[in-house]
């Protein structure tokens, strides 16, 4: 008799638990739904739409004309595309100075001394400024008639008017806010380091560079990955400083893929051609990020 009563009670409890789990799953789905909808609308749809648009010739007003791969063929035969691609590669190389320099600043500021919070705020201040403000500040800095650079070197240097100097000059301006951003990422990572591991390493005789390289830096690997990915995305998306400081000139010598895409879409109404540039830029970004992601996952295993 007791077994007969226990079985229905056990079955009822199991059914009640499954009902609760089902309700929790449905609630979680409802919470995820707005985020998924926004991601689809703001990320997936523009990507798919750009890929589809790249096979058409369209000025934004008249009906679209299907041209197949003609936009890509023209793109890969244009000298400006290779100039922009070369500048993007230069941005990638030089802009990646931001994470290591940001780490150096973070290590310096990660100490408990009086007034360190004020110093941190001063270091972080450039990141708060908009790209337009940074561009204007460095345009005045580089001005060959009254700029601060003229006072430093003793004579006027037309940085933004020299095809060889304009891109490094703009990248230097971009490093000013990007470096403190990486610094804040590393400061956050340094607070999460296990002090017991550091103390144990010190007891084993590790100190200085050896302690940093073998104990501290491995624990900062996720932060390093995030800093590199965001820096790479920032380098490939570089637009505002170029628009403010040089307008892609002189003679397209400072243009990058993002600015070239804007130039073709807004000035010349070539929406399909600019979409093909966007697809190439997205492919470069995707390959670079997937490579670093796979490398990080392989190291964690």
UniProtKB/TrEMBL annotation:
Location of the protein in the cell: Cell membrane
Listed Gene3D superfamilies: MetI-like
Keyword Cell membrane attached: yes
Database matches in InterPro entries: MetI-like, MetI-like_sf, UgpAE/MalFG_permease
Assigned keywords, A-Z: Cell membrane, Membrane, Sugar transport, Transmembrane, Transmembrane helix, Transport
SUPFAM superfamilies (UniProt xref): MalF N-terminal region-like, MetI-like
Main localization category: membrane
Residues spanning the membrane: 27-48, 89-109, 121-142, 170-190, 211-236, 272-291
Ranges for domain ABC transmembrane type-1: 84-294
Record carries keyword Transcription: no
One Pfam family matching this protein: BPD_transp_1
Annotated CDD domains: TM_PBP2
Membrane-topology descriptor: Multi-pass membrane protein
GO biological process, one term: transmembrane transport
Cellular component GO terms held in the UniProt record: plasma membrane
Protein family per UniProt: Belongs to the binding-protein-dependent transport system permease family.
PANTHER family associated with the record: BLL4140 PROTEIN
Entry protein name: Multiple sugar transport system permease protein
